[in-house]
Amino acid sequence: MTYDLTIIQTTGMTYDLTIIPTTGMTYDLTIIPTTGMIYDLTIIQTTQGFCKYLEHCFGEGLKERGVVVGFDARAHPTSGGSSKHFASLAAAVFTSRGVPVHLFCDITPTPFVPFTVSHLGLCAGVMVTASHNPKQDNGYKVYWENGAQIVPPHDKGISVAIEANLEPWPGSWDTTSHSPLLKDPYQDIHTEYYRTIQQHCHHREINKSSEVKIVHTSVHGVGHTFVQSAFKAFDLRPPYAVEEQKDPDPEFPTVQYPNPEEGEGVLTLSFALAEREGASVVLANDPDADRLAIAEKQKGGQWRVFSGNELGALLGWWVYQCWKQTNPDQSTVKSVYMLASTVSSKILRAIALKEGFHFEETLTGFKWMGNRARELLDQHKIVLFAFEEAIGYMCSSAVLDKDGVSAAAIAGEMTSYLATKNTTLSQQLTAIYEEYGYHITKNSYFICHDQEVIRAMFDRLRHYGNQDQEAVSYPRQCGGVPITAVRDLTTGYDSNQTDNKAVLPTSTSSQMISFTFSNGGVATMRTSGTEPKIKYYTELCAAPGNSDVKGLQKELDDLVDAIIEDFFQPMKNNLLPKPE
After folding, report:
1. Looking at domain 186-436, which CATH architecture does it have?
2. Which positions of the chain have pLDDT values less than 50?
3. Which end of the chain has fewer beta carbons closer than 10 Å to its terminal beta carbon, N or C?
4. pTM, entire model
5. Does 335 participate in catalysis according to the annotation?
6. What CATH fold (topology level) applies to the domain 4-184?
């Protein structure tokens, strides 16, 4: 069992500490409404437990190396809390124990915190952010000394330490203290970050002369200033900023949800600005600027919002092309790695097979990719790129987490370069699929509040056709398409392995099964730990040369329909479809 440290705050409520199972094989330490506790207290208790665990792991080294604390622009007048206030409380807890704290003086993108951990050699980092969650939420994100989010055994160790340190320590409430242990890393990290990402700028002369017009929106978050600086670091033409959304506003007044994954609804103002200015590309960050969405105007005048998987294909291809350009000696290609989460597109695998580098998949979430990247880097491997289908991209190993700021600048350079070839992003994506094989995806979910129904549904798939429910027997086909492999990360079974044991971590606390089909299809069904959802991710991976996109889409649609009808059985299980 493992744990995520995630504190979700809702206006007007108080909280207790409860462990809730999440994504297939992890746990969220989530705050659940109760009585007699306040937000400040939960932040203090969480930080006290984290601090005690760091003391246990690093001893006096913690007081020598210290930690970093950052925050986004969230503020909640109703509850009296804000990200800045919570960050100050966390810093006060650390300094009360003699721990040096690099506390950012102003709002900052989430990726700047793991960058600071790595750059300064700190023991840990804390980012107070709710990313793209609704406006009433807030969260507490933890990074380890390796610059990646925490994974086992640290997550469980921290959770235990929190429960053992619930009573506030002397001085932990004092956010007005001017402790000599407090340092502001803002200016130094700002300078060093942009200096570092410039190593990924490969076409500066093209950038300087590019006539491409790009619109950027930070969706009322922290991203505006930082993306403008990133474009400047690449000598790119500054993107047009959506005036109504460029300044931080915790009320997010122009969008229903501050999530660029929502597509056109969040990008309406961006499209309008692009039309006025004659821009062809829109970039959008989520409020803490660790994710990136991209849209492009098509020849017919409509806008195409790329999926996270499509952007993974484009950015992965681009990063590899730039690496090849600067590394003409291909003898080192076998040291190159790219990563993706297991529910993301397998397009990087197809590119890797043809180009000769390595591709690996990890469990869902950048904490797994970040830690695996760190392991590979420590083995002197080259980690070029990692992505997840939820529009998260790591284009530089300087940040072992998704980073929407560097990804925006790199996307800007890619767009400018392609323009010199009279090629659009959409055309380049087609060229990638033509060369490496089309990868058609279709993802969605059902809503179910009955855990017993969910358990029975997945158990049926593990004992398919066996009424006695004892012998394990997974489906052998679906919709007439043979199933060639099954991986069950709830039980640890993987038919692709010689010993039938899954390589990726498993957990009996949540459900996750993947099926591979003879026609190149892959489908994963999993439960969500934070919402009453059963999600599915499907992809049809075609061989290079098969350009019948409509035929491939129909083949995937038919397979998905069969999976829904046979595996989900929505009518029998009273599953609610995804709201339109």
Report:
1. 3-Layer(aba) Sandwich (3.40)
2. 1-4, 6-38, 78
3. C
4. 0.91
5. no
6. Alpha-D-Glucose-1,6-Bisphosphate; Chain A, domain 3 (3.40.120)
